[in-house]
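> @MW can you paste both from yesterday?
MW: sure, first one:
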Amino acid sequence: MPFAPRRYVSYRAPSRLNVDGKLDEPGWASASWSDPFIDIEGDRGPRPRFRTRAKMLWDDEYFYVAAEMEEPDVWGTLTERDSVIFHDNDFEIFIDPDGDTHAYYELEVNALGTPWDLMLLKPYRDGGPAIHAWDIAGLQVGVDVRGTLNRPGDADEGWTVEIAMPWKILREAAPDHQPPRPGDRWRVNFSRVEWNVDVTDGRYAKRLRPGTTDLLPENNWVWSPQGAINMHMPERWGYVQFSSMRAGTGTEPFVEDPNERVKWALRRLYYRQRRVRDANGGYAATLEALNASDIRPIGVDGIDFHPVMDATTTRYEIAAKGFDGAVVHISQDGRVWVTR
């Protein structure tokens, strides 16, 4: 998969937002919509049937996210917090404040406004675990249904969700345990789970595979494509850059950190090491065994990519020089970090 995460510049909210799902404040009107969501696998997947898009704002207390979802049949069943919300149609937020792919947050919300919030210490592929008892204390969720909720037989327009997440919680896994500063970039992605439904006995029912009692798999539509049906690959999430400018007063360009492309080159070696481990029961001892010479950071000049590796059959660390005196590292558990 090419390295092409989505990008977004989040501006400051000009005033406190009323989190009701309606998105009718001037701040939201001034914030730009994201690109429409695409299939989680990218261009390999089918085009989404309904449009989904998101926008973001921030202030000293909250990170605000809004999403608009076209939907002819708005429904929801789950009302208890921390239920497995993706069993309903939902909207999901993933946030990795320091971009190391560890200690990140997940929030799911359905059309009833029911949240499921959790923290993952590592992605599931690297052993997890998920901390389901973790809550975003002070979370605000507003939903506005453009149509009717849980009423089959009519055609709805869709639903919007508006979310305010306090920095006092989101800073837990952030650099220096602080909210972002202007110019900082956090890894973020959004997902929408959409089930095919039929109307049975006057109620919505998930559609089955023809001739079976098995559910059709859900659709997963995302902001930044993952290249696989797996949201828990934080290295493929988008970037959100936080601006000091108030929404509507101007624009600023997104500034890419070239060390992110060095991280991606190391991530490709991590993928190769996983394949070696799965095939042989242990990691490769040399970079030559990984054909590392055919990997280069794409889209950047001015760097000689010569990684070095310290490895045993059960662990490894690969490091490479980056830009501005940085050294970029990755280990067998997928964590990536920068030293200077």
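MW: second:
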Amino acid sequence: MTAPQLHHAGNEEVLAILAERQRIVLTTHPNPDGDALGSEYAMYHMLTGMGKEVRIVNIDPMPENLRFLNGTVDYETWNPVEHEELLARADAIIALDFNHCDRMREMGDAACGSTAHRIVIDHHLEPQPFADTYLSVPNASSTAEIVYDLLEAGAMELTREIALGIYVGLMTDTGSFRFDRTTPRVHRIAARLLEHGVDPLDIHRKIFDDYPMNRTALLGRVLAGIEQHFDGRVTILSVTRQMFEDTGTTVEDVENVVNYGLGIRGVEVTALITELEDGHKISFRSRGKFSVNDIAGEFGGGGHRLAAGARLDDPDGETVREKVIGRFGRLFQQ
């Protein structure tokens, strides 16, 4: 059977589609990060500046360290009683920072069943067929960079609010401008955002340097249990629901914790295994030699070459751990 063909569009076509539609809903993936929420923030202000009626509806609430974005924008959390009709009446639904319909979970049926024109704006690999139009740029540093290009293509004003959203996405998805896709152009974009009123010190402090004490306690527990395998080339970090209960933390408090696994000399790949109520979440990272997107794909997930993730229904953490270690082991046999 031939795989469905995706309709890939450029900035001008996407802008033309949006120009013809009035009621627009923005959404993003579960456990939204800075790129997801920052891109929504920028798109919201860009579209309202065009006179559009815009709502943001996400499957999960925003994490505490990004709630400063919830000032001029109302981030709504999915409620079928309130939002099913909203999606049914929408003229366009824009999926930001993801490219699989199942990432919307229980919101997916309403979004994918709507008569609205569905647009994906994303930078992840291997998009799946569920939208009408794809603005997909896998080489981009972030979805926020794609949003910036869309703004530029439309010759629209770069307001301080739009600049703030783009900067949050750009900065977080490049690991504070240190990951492999931090190109000279990314720095030039960041410079322009600063020229439009973004305060980099304030933004970085709010996102990365303002954690509560219980999150630090959780980090201590996770790092105390870090494992090394294959002559120190692999590290495994684990977070259990008991750790969350003991420290009064939640899943959102392990955002970016996986990166500690790469901070050890000689480590090439790492994984953070997080126990959820209904299974486990795995975050993969690579220092550069190996692609973890391929590994995540074998677990039903995906992402980027050096950063990817997956979600498993398996409730047994030890089984998940052994599978991850076994898969990493095969890397060194290739």
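> thanks! The two ends are 31 Å apart (CA to CA).
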